[in-house]
Amino acid sequence: MKRRTFNTIFGSGAMAVASEGGGKSGAAVNPQTATPNGQPLKWPEGVYRRVLVDTHIPAWHPKLLANFDSAEYVRTIAQAKFQSVMQYAKSHVGLCLWQTKIGPLHANMKGRDYFGEVMKECRKSGLHTVAYYSLIFDIWAFDNFPDWRILPEMGSDQMLERRPGVVCPNSPYRDRVVAELQELVGNYDFEGIFLDMTFWPEVCYCPYCSERFRQEHNAELPRIVNWDDPTWRLFQKARERWLLEFAMLVTKTIKQVRPITVNHQYSTVFADWKFGIPLELRDASDYLVGDFYGGPTQYSLVCKAYHVLTGMRPFEFCTSRTTDLHDFETTKPFNELFTSSSIATLHSAANLTIDSFNPDGTLNPEVYKFLGQQNAKLAPYEPFLGGDMLADVAVYYDKESMYDPAENGGRAAE
User: Fold this and answer.
1) Please, what is the end-to-end C-alpha distance for the chain in angstroms?
2) 32 near 83, Cβ under 8 Å?
3) Please, what is the average pLDDT of the chain?
4) CA 28 to CA 125: how far, in whole Å?
5) What's the CA gap between 413 and 223, in Å, rounded?
6) How far, in Å, are 137, 147, 159, 172, 208 from residue 205 at the CA level?
7) Is there a contact between 103 and 96 (Cβ–Cβ < 8 Å)?
8) What's the number of CA atoms in the CB half-sphere (13 Å) around residue 223?
9) CA distances from 235 to 171, 205, 270, 368 (A)
10) Most buried among 86, 132, 289, 340, using CB within 10 Å?
């Protein structure tokens, strides 16, 4: 298509024309996930409209998630012209939403298999499927295995101030992760998996980190920040190395079961040293994924960095349909939401919209009518996405310099 025609479509926000044709065997024809000749879109290259519904819902009351209807849930998403669903298998709560023989079950499923039901309904609707699994942030493990907890420099009382419990990837927690993921990936058919929260929420001084550092460097963990101290710099390098090793272990475990796409949370690559994120964390992901909430300027910078760093395209840009992740009700104005989504599209990225369940496991259908309008405006641009970006100016970004010498002398927990 000529550039003038493309610009006309872009300016008018014309609706996509649904194409008829065959789909996957056993699946309904879904024009949102089919090419113009009726063939299913290949995952992940041709899939740009994606959705995640936050499910950090505990089981301490019988009404929590009690009204979840997998068929209605998937039908609502499909009618909003989404092409893929990222479905929770395990949230920060730490309870499994699949029928597991290894991990703790969400009690309110009452014998049902929420994850399996959604996979089945997505196949019927022709939607692509990705599993969501929370790493490190695991309230159940935190409560049931106190020795697995991340231990801040100031002691356990500081960690108890957090809402989600966090556990250390150097502890035996990693063995549980491996076992659960082997079961999940081996027993269910989905195309990708997203591992959230792959970072250090605190500088950890637990017995497992202390012993490992002692074995590797014949030294005790330093507690005072001092970038002029070789031992402190060794500790920071160790934290980054340990996290990357854990991420690579998780990715390798999954790939050995089935060759699906694997992605780790990568938005924290822009954070300071405390998160312990090496640039090489990208090597544990097939394509980069991150969620951001800082507005158009931040989104533009992120997309340009991801475009260069990602191993596979499209990378995935995520943001919430609400004002932030602490507000589960207030939807952004349409122009604001469409602007953030359009920035992803302008960079040939997949756009993942983050929504959340009501506590009882239902969705607000009016929200998805609203999101359907956004998706209808984005769809016409998708045939033109791809290629390499052209630039006249580059921004130098040094991951090795993300610390402040003025911090010297402070405690690690400050």
Assistant:
1) 56
2) yes
3) 90
4) 5
5) 8
6) 17, 11, 12, 15, 8
7) yes
8) 9
9) 17, 11, 20, 47
10) 289
Q: Indicate yes or no: pTM above 0.70.
A: yes
Residue 162 has a pLDDT of: 63
Q: Hey, is 414 helix, strand or coil? A: coil
∠ CA 213-241-232 to the nearest 5 degrees? 50
Residues 46, 385: Cα–Cα separation, whole Å? 9
- pLDDT for 107 equals 96
Residue 408 burial by Cβ neighbours in a 10 Å radius (0-12, 13-18, 19+): middle
- The predicted pLDDT at position 252 comes to 98
CA 292 centroid distance within chain: 11
Q: Tell me the per-residue pLDDT of 229-255, one tens digit each, with 9 for 90 and over.
A: 999 999 999 999 999 999 999 999 999
Rounded-to-integer distance, Cα 219 and Cα 185, Å: 39
pLDDT at 325: 77
CA-nearest of 273, 268, 207 to 239 is 273
Per-residue pLDDT of 329-386, as tens digits, reads: 888 999 999 999 999 999 999 999 999 999 999 999 999 999 999 999 999 999 999 9
Helix (H, G, I), strand (E, B) or coil at 291: strand
Taking the C-alpha atoms of residue 126 and residue 25, their distance in angstroms, rounded to an integer, is: 10
Question: Which tokens hold the place of 255?
Answer: 């790939």
Do residues 381 and 12 make contact, with C-beta atoms less than 8 angstroms apart?
no
Per DSSP, the residues of 188-223 read S--SEEEEE--S-SS----HHHHHHHHHHHSSPPP-
Distance, in Å, from the CA atom of 242 to the CA atom of 281, rounded to the nearest integer, reads: 11
- pLDDT tier at 27, thresholds 50, 70, 90: low
- Identify the CA nearest to 389 among candidates 299, 274, 270, 306: 306
Q: Give the chain's largest Cα–Cα span.
A: 66
- Positive or negative torsion for Cα 148, 149, 154, 156: negative
Tell me what the mean pLDDT of segment 389-405 comes to: 86
Whole-angstrom Cα distance, residue 27 to residue 400?
A: 49
Q: Name 52's bridge partners.
A: 86, 354
